[in-house]
Amino acid sequence: MAGSQPPPVGRVIGTDDATPLAFWVALAEGQYLQLDDVVVCERVVPGLDEPVRVSGVVAQVRARHEGARFDSDVFLVADGVLPAATVEAAEVVTTRVEPEVYVPPLPGSPAHRAAGAGRDQALFFDRMDKKLPIGLGRDGQALYANLEFVDGTRGAHVNISGISGVATKTTYATFLLYALFHSGVLAEEAANTHALIFNVKGEDLLFLDHENTRLDDAQRDRYRRLGLVPGAFGSVAVFAPPRRGDPNAGPDVATRTQGVHAFYWTLADFVEGELLPFVFADAEDDRQQYTMVVHNVTAALARHGERAGDGAWRVDGRTLRTYRELVDLVVEKVTDDVEGPEWAGRAVGTGTVNAFVRRLLSSQRALDRLVRADVPERARHLIETDGAQVTVVDLHNLPDRAKRFVVGVTLRRAFERKEQTGTARPLLFVVLDELNKYAPRDGDSPIKEILLDVAERGRSLGIVLIGAQQTASEVERRIIANSSIRVVGRLDPAEAARPEYGFLPPTHQRRATIAKPGTMFVMQPEIPVPLVAEFPFPAWATRPSERDGPDPAATGAAAVPDDPFVGLPGSSSGP
Q1: Contact present, 525 and 124 (Cβ < 8 Å)
Q2: Are 261 and 238 in contact, with CB atoms under 8 Å apart?
Q3: What is the pLDDT of residue 370?
């Protein structure tokens, strides 16, 4: 063993089989190994100019008495009556063999705790040209993912699973974004790279541009060990739906009253963009016959109408300014004895039309504040991702049906814009929680089709999906399969036993059921075992009480400006 190696922690056991894929190490007196430690040992093979280095990660550790036969012998050993030796051993799962001659380490071979270049080689970090920090290992040193499996060079997309409120899925997704933007791994591309985050729970993601006042020196040091300077996101735009019943269509947020812009679609946007199918975005809808009525009505609205002022839509001389007026018109047309066949379709029966009408009428409360032309049309009323590095779309106050509409329409627009540019750069990262709602395993819907397009073609277009869900078993298989990086936080025991987590060794599956918040199991293509990473406490505020500066709501803040970027860090018009 080279002189630069640390002293051995033990030797390969001869009473348990040693294979090229796994072996056991008995620990020397005064030494220890813990789960996730990196171990390396060598073997001389005839005919090779250099020894074979077998590196691996500790997957299990055991301790037992040798010389005892019965459980009760432990008391005799403790009293010194029965002679027995306490022996600790660690199971090592092989990660890398260099050179690639797959022979087992020989019993009695010294085993070393890998450090420095040896650790980097064992975990393939030495082969990564662009290393993305993903957290700290049990040894307190940085762990990395290969950016080439994130940015589309060799693969793309990240999928995160775990129990809601415990697995910290969204927090880890924002940590990955922070590492992407601030670690230097994107080099000069970072300035033009964008992220689109859908905030589906509470208002925790509305303060990414505020530093976290709870961040202490110990957590700051963890960032520095990852090569990161702790702080808030520098360029953030926040969009929220209009408040229900507000004649000014102000944003429906409670804790952030500055730098938030209300988004909506005019009736002209709705018709010309052919958005009606996203009103019927539940997974079960495409299994119903009335989907043909949806497409017929979408075409008829465009064929028989034209733009009016402030985004209104005029059909047969009738000006429509609210979503309810649009719904009433469509219901009249499809149920009319004369015009019905042209609007609904000639081969469509009455029962199918009635099913369409019932579904359309039920959408009014969910969508009436999102599709409208009853306010003066604003220059910026659509969700844009070009004005800031991070764009947060707040959905938490919307019903599920409205959430699906916003997610589907926004993703389609982003996807179409990337298709039109014809280039993968700059990258767009999309963070979407509750993926099982938008791309469930069973059924079809417009949103699911878009997400499948992102998963299967987004790599070539420069759209990277960072998806999260409580249960990967309920998400469309092709989306999971196309995710190069898979991350697992705290799992429900029943969910951990599902085949979707087969990439986790049995020990890691059991550990995932007791993992503490902030601990993630990260699987990536180059490394054959998951890396157990702990990521630091967020350096950006995750709730109103953590942000720096006074609460605008408590200081009599001015009304929200029409420009969504006024008052945001990095804005030329900011304070």
Answers
A1: no
A2: yes
A3: 95
Centre a 10 Å sphere on the Cβ of residue 131 and count the other Cβ atoms it contains. 20
What is the tens place of the pLDDT at every residue in 357-385?
Answer: 999 999 999 999 999 999 988 888 999 98
CB 212 within 8 A of CB 538: yes
What stretches of 185-290 show up as alpha helix (H) in DSSP? 217-225, 267-272
Cβ distance 462 to 425 under 8 Å? yes
Q: Is 286 exposed, middle or buried (0-12, 13-18, 19+ CB in 10 A)?
A: middle
Helix (H) or strand (E) holding 237: strand 236-240
Q: Which residues of 251-280 are buried (b: 16+ CB within 10 A; e: fewer)?
A: bbbebbbbbbbbbbbbbbbbbebebbbbbb
Please enumerate in sequence order all residues whose Cβ is within 8 A of that of 178, keeping only pairs 6 or more positions apart, or say none.
Answer: 228, 233, 539, 540
How many Å is the maximal CA-CA distance in the chain? 102
The CA distances from residue 345 to 182, 285, 350, in Å, are 54, 18, 11
* CATH topology for the 131-262+382-554 domain: Rossmann fold (3.40.50)
Tokens of residue 82, six digits: 């029965």
Domain ranges in the chain are: 8-116, 131-262+382-554, 267-367
Task: Let me know how long the chain is.
Answer: 575
List the chain residues with pLDDT less than 70: 1-6, 167, 283-288, 549-575
403, burial (CB in 10 Å: exposed 0-12, middle 13-18, buried 19+): buried
- Beta strand 313-315 with 305-307 is antiparallel
Distance CA 268, CA 264 (A): 11
What is the residue type of 390?
A: V
Residues 68-117 pLDDT 10s: 999 999 999 999 889 988 999 999 999 999 999 999 999 999 999 999 99
CA R_g for the chain: 29
Provide the CA 172 distance to its chain's centre, in angstroms.
8
Structure tokens belonging to residue 479:
């989306």
The torsion angles phi and psi of 229, rounded to 5 degrees, stand at: -95, 120
pLDDT at 4: 53
Neighbours of 446 (CB within 10 A): 24
Beta strand 142-146 with 463-469 is: unpaired
Instruction: Name residues whose C-beta falls within 8 Å of residue 538's C-beta, 6 or more positions apart in sequence.
Output: 171, 174, 175, 212, 215
Q: Rounded to an integer, what distance in angstroms lies between the CA atom of residue 149 and that of residue 158?
A: 9
**What is the sign of the dihedral through the CA atoms of 19, 22, 26 and 31?**
positive
Which runs of consecutive H residues, i.e. helices, occur in 320-384?
Answer: 323-335, 340-344, 350-361, 364-367
CB atoms within 10 A of CB 124: 18
Quote the pTM value: 0.88
Q: Which of 178, 125, 175, 161 is nearest to 531 (CA)?
A: 125
CA angle 534, 536, 540 (to 5 degrees): 145
* pLDDT for 572: 31
